Amino acid sequence: MLTAIAAAFLGGIILNLMPCVFPVISLKALSLIRHHARPAHARAEGLAFLVGVVVTMVLLVSLLLLARLGGASVGWGFQLQSPLVIAVLVLVMLASALNLFGLFEVGLSLQRVGEVGGSQGGLIGSALTGALAIIVATPCSAPFMASAVGYALTQPPFISFIIFLSLALGFAAPFTLISFFPIVARILPSPGAWMITLKHALAFPMLGAAGWLIWVLERQAGSTALAAILTCCLLLSFAAWLYGLAQKRQMMGRRHWALHIATAVVIVLLVPPLVTLKGSTAAADSSDVVAAAAVAWSPQNVDAIKGQGKPVLVNFTASWCITCQVNERTSLSTQAVKTAMARTNTIYMIADSTKYNPDVEQALSDFGRGGLPLYVVYPADGGKPVVLPQVLTPGTVITALQQASEKGNKS
């Protein structure tokens, strides 16, 4: 148990370096730069970020454990199997980008009240940044996380909570500690006009994250969902523009309520397209990816094929899993690995979890993994399967296939 707690904490720290977290973490870096001359504010926002991460993790784990107690086989990142959740995240990312571009401001009225009001607005913003960061972190899997999360999901609820809490503390630790040590903050550049340019630049990673999530949504729920989310993006952008106009008129002491009402009406218009996403599904499950596999994955197919004199490589993946996509492009789809598969007569299977698939979730649980990616090689002689590292290299895959093939030759 202590090993799992330590692994979860270390995995949480490393998770800050994963690409899916960068767009949100960059916002926290901007906040640290803004307050580096005011240590008290920096410490308060660091703690607020920690609270946001921990509270959100507790809520996610509660939903996860309740679903598992109800008989559902779900794991780390389960919320991204819902088209509605993905759509909401797209809109949050887009709204953040529009805010960074200066189209509207968050907490503008609070800032006019005075320092106390502005401080409260900053604390709420930091807590929400922490909440968003841990939600978007789920498509990534850092080293040391897989075994810890897999172990946690096989333990009683109390132990599971302790391990996931350790993961959350590790994730929040770097920024919280930096906010508490002025000597580290002094390394950061002083605030100035350049921060406006930086703020605008940081909007582009948020737009990139929104674009990626739209791609995932289209893969998961089809072209109808794509049309719905693009409509929502247009409406949200219009609402943000109206809200920004209202704020400017309010600051100038001019009438602004009509614009506020118009903003509210446009936001209400977002609801119908979002509702259509709740039960939407694509006509096929990542057909282009599955077509590349020699055999469609299922537990029954694996049982029928393994031990028949050919190695079997199973790739448990999903469109929303960034680590999976990186491994696909840097290792599995390389010519060297394809040649090794052909040379060893390897049967390649893909288990797609872009949408909820109870068989995939059960297989992850059977292998002691709480989330994606998972790569399993079955030896040609039907021996014990080998689980590959979550971060692949072509050499790792080729060596595993060669060893699996040699076992069949010896038999």
TrEMBL record:
InterPro entries to which the protein is assigned, alphabetical: Cyt_c_assmbl_TM_dom, DsbD_gamma, Thioredoxin-like_sf, Thioredoxin_domain
GO biological process: cell redox homeostasis; cytochrome complex assembly
Tagged with keyword Lipid biosynthesis: no
Transmembrane as UniProt keyword: yes
Regions crossing the membrane: 6-25, 46-66, 86-110, 122-146, 158-184, 196-217, 223-245, 257-275
Pfam families associated with the record: DsbD_TM, Thioredoxin_7
Highest taxon of the lineage: Bacteria
Protein name: Thiol:disulfide interchange protein DsbD
Source organism phylogeny: Bacteria, Pseudomonadati, Pseudomonadota, Gammaproteobacteria, Enterobacterales
Compartments it resides in: Cell membrane
Gene Ontology CC terms, in alphabetical order: plasma membrane
Main location: membrane
Keywords of the record: Cell membrane, Cytochrome c-type biogenesis, Membrane, Transmembrane, Transmembrane helix
Gene Ontology molecular function, alphabetical: protein-disulfide reductase activity
Organism encoding this protein: Pantoea allii
Membrane topology per record: Multi-pass membrane protein
Domain Thioredoxin: 281-406
PROSITE patterns recorded: THIOREDOXIN_2
